[in-house]
Amino acid sequence: MKKNKPALLQPEEFEKIQSEVLEKVFRVSPQQKKLDIVEDNNFLKHILSCDKEICSFAFGSIGERLHNLAQNLDLDHPEVQTGEFLSSFTHENGCEKIIQFIKLCDLAIQNNLTVLDKSFTKSVTKSIFPNVKFSMNLLRNRQQFVRLFADASTRARLRKLKEVREVTTMAHRVVSAWESVGGLKSYERFGNFYEDQIKESQKRADLFKEYGMSGLRIETQKIIKEIGSAKEYKYYGFQRVSMTVAALALARMHDSTLRNDFIQIPASLFDFDFEHGSLEPANHHRNWYEYHPMIFPVHKMENNDKMEEIVSYLESFPEANGKPIFDHYVALVPGVYLPAGVAYYDTSRNYREFDSEISAHIAFNLLLIKKKCIVPALLGEKDGKFYFICFWE
Q1: Which of 92, 116, 232, 294 is 20 to 30 A distant from 280 in Cα terms?
Q2: DSSP letter string, 75-123
Q3: CB-based contacts of 135, cutoff 8 Å, min separation 6
Q4: Beta-bridge mates of residue 378
Q5: Contact 375/334 with Cβ under 8 angstroms?
Q6: What distance in Å separates the CA atoms of residue 109 and residue 379, rounded to the nearest whole number?
Q7: Could you tell me the pTM of the whole model?
Q8: Residue 293, SS3?
Q9: CA gap 69, 59 in Å, rounded
């Protein structure tokens, strides 16, 4: 391995970095909280015990969807038991009202009490579900709560609906965010990235106040408010990170630079000439390539026993009573734009051409990973937010 390779691409250094990250992934949280079970207000369990007809009579199409959902969800999952997931649908005390109204509708059906007509039940539905449209969309978009499904094959099927995609938020944020982003390791589990960021921002705000720089102080206070409570950015100790920041952090860890609003990844990372197929293994015709990060669902990556072991562990996470904690698992790949768009030369100097740029970049990135020219990061996704797990190996 060349000396100019970044630490992430040097076997001994990578092993050290990865072992530190994984030790925290498998470490038991020092402050495990006892689950605050809301068994009496778990309206999904009550819905499951009722006929679908009653749920439909009470809440219309929302009632039908909730009944179908209750049949498929793991009602013993901590997020269901504690009411965290249920609170997405209704307001405070809404769960209790749902249960009571279902009982009332059951009584009405049994006794043919027609006073509970559709107009009445519709008004009750609106009062219990303040945002009916939001609730319906949440029920339709099952990708947002894959972790809560009881059946492992259902979770796998829903996850396989995800496709490879580009990191589309890079362009408009790269310049402003580049200088403030460090390495991705700072987002490891149990890290204090956000706490440290709040402290540093507060120090700057105090300094601006001392020197009468009110404009800068106000802007800094906005940053502190935006960060909010650091606890909101942690989930079982895993730290939340935006896909843009994660992509920038990976770029930095691959010795990339920012020039003319573009991130440039050094050509020295690639020990084969994929642009011209030169006989000289490192005879690149340029010093850099344009950075092109992509998001690979793990099922689109090549089989990897180590990564499968980690995902399996998170699918039966001890601190979540042996339940899954993420909806999806993705590999953030720090790739490059192919100069030819749809073609490249592989390591055997074979010219490979594809029908589309996305197909070419998928195959090319997998080759770069296999050749250990780049190191992706494994991220967990929950409710559309991403959390750093570890590096891909």
Answers
A1: 294
A2: TTSHHHHTSTTGGGTS-TTHHHHHHHHHHHHHHHHHTT-TTS-HHHHHH
A3: 62, 88, 89, 90, 129
A4: 331, 390
A5: yes
A6: 49
A7: 0.86
A8: strand
A9: 14
